[in-house]
């Protein structure tokens, strides 16, 4: 357990007053940050609504600087739009699976 800011946490991250710090991605692993940003934005949206999804809040949740978010998304609206598209894609995928497995005409061979 860290004793204060600047100490290393049990998971190997540095504990800071700004929030958790993310370890730098290894070469070829840069796409992972984009996914983490989207997951954090989706969680904020789910938990507290659209107003809670700010660039700063997403960056803090992931443990990166605010400018790091702008490497992947031009603005807050683009980030929200991408999260929503992901939700709609997942809903469509799930509905397709349910339709195929429950429809009598489609499930017969």
Briefly say what this structure is.
The chain is mainly alpha-helical and 109 residues long. It has helices spanning 31-48, 55-62, 66-70, 76-102, 104-107; strands spanning 15-16, 19-20. It is built from 5 helices and 2 strands, in the order ββααααα.
From the structure above, extract its key features.
109 residues; mainly alpha; two-stranded antiparallel sheet; 5 helices; 2 strands; 4% strand; elongated; disordered N terminus
Q: What report would you give on this structure?
A:
The protein has 109 residues and is mainly α. The protein is 57% helix and 4% strand. It contains five helices and two strands. Strands 1-2 form a two-stranded antiparallel ribbon. Strand 1 (15-16) and strand 2 (19-20) form a beta hairpin. The longest helix has 27 residues, at 76-102. The radius of gyration is 19 Å and the shape is elongated. It starts with 14 loop residues before the first strand and ends with a helix.
Low-confidence segments, given as residue ranges, are 1-18
- The share of residues in extended strands comes to under 5%
What is the helix fraction of residues, given as a range? 55-70%
Distance between the termini: 59 Å
Nearest-integer average pLDDT: 80
Q: What order do the SSEs take from the amino end to the carboxyl end, as H and E? A: EEHHHHH
* Strand order in space, largest sheet: 1-2
What gross morphology would you assign? elongated
Q: Can you count the helices?
A: 5
| Sheet/helix structural class | mainly alpha
